[in-house]
Write a structure and sequence with these properties.
By secondary structure, the protein is an alpha+beta fold. It has two domains: about 120 residues, no CATH class; about 35 residues. The chain is built from six helices and five strands. The longest helix is centred in the C-terminal third of the chain and has 24 residues. The chain is globular.
């Protein structure tokens, strides 16, 4: 997976701050095992065991839910390049339903709420986006009123 295929957004919840890769084209997010461990508040080895079990049981197809990303980092004076597996939203959700921690419980509650909204209402509102859109509309209205007052002598009379 190329870095050009996704954008980073900051996910912040209850003191947890995590950069999440969003693949707009494929409508999914991507996390490493370490990031999933941080999200669910557990050790990375637990994530590894759950993913192995998920793929072994045939719950998910690894080729459809896992992609490689190149990670470049400095280690002392040398530059090291590694291939790091990233897991998409399906894998993250599957792991989230297997992990037992306070954060994974909060994740399951959130996921259940979102799923219920889709099933009952047919959609889910993104409150932050809706609020930002409303602010944009308010600004546009203010500009329209300002320009209308500036050009009052040329406004048509209805």
């Amino acid at each position: 997976m190329s870095d050009k295929n996704y954008k980073l957004i900051a996910f912040t919840e209850d003191g947890l701050s995590l950069d999440v890769r969003v693949d707009v084209g494929k409508e999914t997010v991507w996390l490493t095992q370490a990031e999933m461990a941080e999200l669910f508040g557990v050790d990375r080895t637990r994530i590894t065991r759950h993913l192995s079990s998920i793929y072994k049981d045939g719950e998910l197809d690894k080729s459809a839910t896992c992609a490689e990303s190149t990670q470049v980092q400095k280690e002392g004076t040398r530059t090291v390049v590694r291939q790091v597996p990233l897991y998409n939203l399906e894998a993250i959700i599957s792991v989230g339903y297997r992990v037992n921690s306070k954060r994974s419980i909060a994740f399951r509650r959130w996921a259940n709420t979102v799923l219920k909204q889709y099933l009952v209402e047919g959609y889910v509102l993104n409150e932050k986006r809706l609020s930002a859109l409303n602010r944009t509309v308010e600004v546009q209205r203010a500009f329209a009123c300002f320009f209308a007052l500036q050009n009052a002598d040329s406004l048509p009379i209805i």
